């Protein structure tokens, strides 16, 4: 589903009205017919479309992040997927005030980079990776990864952020990332490793255990890479259940 299919950011347009518009044939901005709604709502929609076209041409993800309800942020993905940054962090614990970030992996444009504490994991490197993206994609990153990075490195992560945990819940996919991956048939190279193991691996690395850091990096990188597959799956299913089913009403 693309942003151009959406009318829900408009004042006076809720979920029911938007789905009615789709069912009546207004499946995107080009197909909008003012006669389908009242004059005030029609004016609001036309004003939105004029502004949104300009912002979309400019690649202004922040504008759409602001005007879309947070529950509908997944709709930004199709338009901005090419410059989306899928990211995941590993830490020494759950408290961002005193625990440390050990590795950060970014997957963007089919390339994956891992920053490691004590090597290249710096505030400048993290900020640069964030600033280079149009859309951040994570799992539980809004509550955990993003604030952890901001607190640990004193940076400001203000890039629009799609946290896949929430659209997953909309589809009835609950639990952690690994559980959801299993539900959608996404396999891992090391399914036996968990977040708790990531803490252990970092401690083993500090103790000089050979191969511990490589295993940790591999685990962290797989988290970031798998987020792309999860995003594709979730947005496709939401497109089907939200948009396609509404459009089907027009032909039944």
UniProtKB/TrEMBL annotation:
Ranges where the YprB ribonuclease H-like domain occurs: 85-234
The highest taxon in the source lineage is: Archaea
Write down the Pfam families for this protein, in alphabetical order. Answer: RNase_H_2
Q: Which InterPro entries match?
A: RNaseH-like_sf (IPR012337), RNaseH_sf (IPR036397), YprB_RNase_H-like_dom (IPR038720)
What SUPFAM superfamilies does the annotation carry?
Ribonuclease H-like
One GO MF term, please? Answer: nucleic acid binding
Q: Which PANTHER family match?
A: EXONUCLEASE-LIKE PROTEIN, YPRB RIBONUCLEASE H-LIKE DOMAIN-CONTAINING PROTEIN
Name-wise, this protein is YprB ribonuclease H-like domain-containing protein
Q: Which organism is it from?
A: Halohasta litchfieldiae
Q: What lineage is this protein's organism placed in?
A: Archaea, Methanobacteriati, Methanobacteriota, Stenosarchaea group, Halobacteria
